[in-house]
Design goal:
By secondary structure, the chain is mainly α. The protein is built from 6 helices and 2 strands; from the N terminus they run H-H-H-H-E-E-H-H. The chain has a single domain, classed as Up-down Bundle (Four Helix Bundle (Hemerythrin (Met), subunit A)), CATH 1.20.120.
């Protein structure tokens, strides 16, 4: 089952949060540069995963990735191969590696850890992953 971003972003997000984010906190709306402003907003408002802002901010992060690098929203219903994101709205098709991006998990990580640049680094690591040279590690053979 494939779902569009519209149900997540525009129907689930309150008008007030977008008005606040756009007018007050974000210098550049829906851009990678706005992610630092999003971090500041979360810290200043002491946002938790129980707040409505959590859903809205997760949708915003997903839209930044989708609009910057492409891809599309889906509802992940692959319980066998990707149970971590099962039932969550995720973005696919933004990277050649074929990984899914779950903005809900990334925003939750920031809320819990408050690690600066987490949003940007999470996107960068998915879009431009570093190759690991496994040849230096022993094998089980």
């Amino acid at each position: 089952m494939r779902l569009t971003a519209a149900w997540l972003l525009w129907e689930r997000c309150s008008v007030s949060i977008f008005a606040i984010l756009i007018k007050t906190y974000f210098d550049e709306v829906l851009s990678l540069n706005s992610l630092k402003d999003m971090e500041s907003y979360i810290i200043k408002n002491n946002t938790t995963v129980n707040d409505d802002d959590y859903n809205d901010l997760s949708a915003y992060l997903g839209e930044v990735l989708r609009l910057t690098y492409g891809g599309k929203w889906i509802c992940n219903l692959d319980k066998i191969n990707n149970s971590l994101f099962y039932g969550f709205p995720v973005i696919e098709g933004h990277s050649d590696s074929g990984v899914l991006f779950s903005p809900f998990h990334i925003v939750k990580a920031f809320i819990l850890r408050k690690k600066t640049n987490l949003f940007y680094e999470a996107i960068e690591n998915q879009v431009n992953p570093q190759k690991i040279d496994w040849s230096q590690f022993p094998t089980e053979d």
